[in-house]
């Protein structure tokens, strides 16, 4: 058994696979909750008469037991566990308790969640419920069920209450950003705009805690501790939190509410982990962020993503949608209902409020859009501008922030960073991006094509972290081999996450071979793959690196060989040259 907060007691119930303390709003409740993962194999495989007897003992007189290991059996067990948790809680002195029980992809496992106010007693309730299940494994009569519940309730009642949740009620405006792709770039842009407006900005993300643009604590702070550490800095008067899937599932969200939420998109990523097996389930997780947005706040949603757009129905906040298409029916619906929208009209980033259109800035003048070339960064810009305005930042400051935020190592490290690398024969372009999933890699290739002069090649340093499904790793290999002229694999040894280098290599190659990609070199590191590609690049070629593990090492090497970061003007010139066939 594993535990989200402290070590498990020595005599853990064998039915309890995991007890996790969620410190704040989560997938199951808008406040702190306990999540149990329970092994119910004995009841899942029991004959129907046995399960009906258990149901009768718990007061479920009309239980449809279903055949062992069937879908009906799983649903019957959801009812049984819901009643069991409430019976133990009631008999131990808790008269009202919300309980959520969910089926999993495993027919012999269920997830149980309930809110908590007293940590020790709430944990004790989870362990007591699992203990009852352990007794039912061997017990055979209705009397055994009643006795097991009574003993469990007595243990819970005798448990000290313990401390309460640590969820924070923010004292400053909070903009919370989530999504599969673009959340880091979007949250960085919002933080930058707020600094332009004169705020002392705290920002938490997977890299660490930043205050006024300076890293003050390194580490993954996309969970509840990130929000807490940002808000603990007394000088911070504006907070931006990047909220990842893992943080929501494993710890919950660290604040009671946010003032503005942003959901950039939801695509296949990290599936098969923590019970999230489909994109729809992933969208439900991301939807926790707008669900806790204040009624007086705004939920900024991608109108071009149906799963994200649907989140307007589960939030009490006002909807502010964004889309590259000014004629999108989603925009008309939201505007007709009193919401707002941000879109692109005649090349201008434009805010719509009812029938009023306010053009803010030309898209090609926003450096992050790469002269309008990057479809994804146009969407990130729309999202960031919407969030900044929704948070009450001044229009002029929003425009100034959009114009001054650059796609470089200072403002947006590791995301679509462009360099010019001189060689004796001529200049080579280098593009560095995280590109951690299919959508990210396709966006990266789109940009590389946009700066590649006619007749030049795309050379790609391919790599992936280990905690992705086999299909996704194969697809990355397929996209790379399909869209690049030369591919070299560079492994991320720090991020194998349970796999071996050989496994990752084989899966990437399997995908590449589906589209004829057979002549692919493998290198032990990201940097080594980049160096190998640069060594064979000709003037005008574009070399891309999917960089996650060695960002600083890559920056240092590029500097050592004379590469310089492209300014917005230089990048615009490359785009113009490529578009004219130069």
From TrEMBL:
Residues 414-546 form the Mur ligase C-terminal domain. This is Cyanophycin synthetase. Residues 177-387 form the Mur ligase central domain. PANTHER family: CYANOPHYCIN SYNTHETASE, MUR LIGASE FAMILY MEMBER. GO terms for molecular function: acid-amino acid ligase activity; ATP binding. It comes from Nocardioides scoriae.
